[in-house]
TrEMBL record:
EC number: 1.1.1.47
Signal peptide segment: none
Keyword list, A-Z: Oxidoreductase
Region feature Disordered, mapped onto this chain: 1-25
A Pfam family hit: adh_short_C2
Name of the protein described by the UniProt record: Glucose 1-dehydrogenase
UniProt similarity note: Belongs to the short-chain dehydrogenases/reductases (SDR) family.
Molecular function in Gene Ontology: glucose 1-dehydrogenase [NAD(P)+] activity
Length: 276
């Protein structure tokens, strides 16, 4: 099976995902600095802009989608925040160090790390998953999170937060996303374990497990044409979600509203009931 070309440009999607924050800011992230991987589009874009509305400055990490990243940076600045963008592969340890070094050079601190970047490829048969694809999916989705946390740790102080993006597929499975679902299971276990590892340092670690959300990840390789035609219809709400319906979960976990939560996962998934 020929693997889909990734990443995809949000600027080319029709209809466009809804990233705009839905309510006025209240200063919940005033003076904070956030690093958001995959921050150029989709959920990452919605998170970056919402964080800026709440007072944060944002470092936007992305693979190569310059047009989307530059647009997101402009949106952040329109909300009153400062933004810097950096392209590269988070599956490479050295690049993750570069992202964190940039954050420290520009802003002098890191308070929030959002590990959102990911990739997925549909395959109907497990035998269709190439060695290259399997390694690539784990390198981006799992290795990238380890590398980002390792690079950020020397700069994270008590009160800092880490938020990892897992998926509903970790809980209910996905017959055409075997390698992707496996990485999301690893991310959930990583989130729970890291929360215990860092709790005594005063650093909280939580996760968000979105359901089917309309982002470039899906039409640009994350779903087969057949599934894309009915994307999100299987949820109780009967539709896909929008990035701005997910971003508030990240905001809640990033700010003091969730000060008594660590090792937990929130589920913006259209009403799908899953185990904890």
């Amino acid at each position: 099976m020929q693997e889909a070309e990734l990443p995809g440009l949000e600027a080319e999607l029709d209809p466009k995902p809804e990233w705009q924050p839905r309510y006025p800011g209240s200063g919940r992230l005033e003076g904070k600095v956030a690093v958001v991987t995959g921050g150029d589009s989709g959920i990452g874009r919605a998170v970056a802009v919402l964080f800026a509305r709440e007072g944060a400055n944002v470092v936007i990490s992305y693979l190569e989608e310059d047009t989307d990243a530059e647009a997101t940076a402009e949106m952040v600045e329109e909300e009153g925040g400062k933004a810097v963008i950096i392209a590269g592969d988070i599956g490479e340890r050295d690049h993750c160090r570069e992202v964190i070094d940039l954050a420290i050079r520009k802003f002098g601190q890191i308070d929030i790390l959002v590990n959102n970047a990911g990739e997925q490829h549909p395959d109907k048969e497990i035998t269709d998953i190439s060695d290259k694809q399997l390694k690539r999916t784990f390198q981006t989705n799992v290795y990238g999170m380890f590398y980002m946390v390792q690079a950020a740790m020397p700069h994270l102080k008590s009160g800092a937060t880490i938020i990892n993006c897992t998926s509903v597929t970790m809980y209910k499975g996905a017959d055409e996303l075997l390698d992707y679902s496996a990485t999301k299971g690893a991310i959930t276990a990583f989130t729970r374990s890291l929360s215990q590892n860092l709790v005594e340092k005063g650093i909280r670690v939580n996760g968000v497990a979105p359901g089917p959300i309309w982002t470039p990840l899906n039409p640009c390789g994350g779903a087969s044409e057949e599934k894309l035609e009915h994307f999100g219809e299987s949820t109780p709400m009967g539709r896909p979600g929008q990035p701005n319906e997910v971003a508030p979960c990240f905001l809640f976990l990033a700010c003091e509203d969730s000060s008594y939560m660590s090792g937990q996962v929130l589920h913006p998934n259209g009403g799908v009931i899953v185990g904890s």
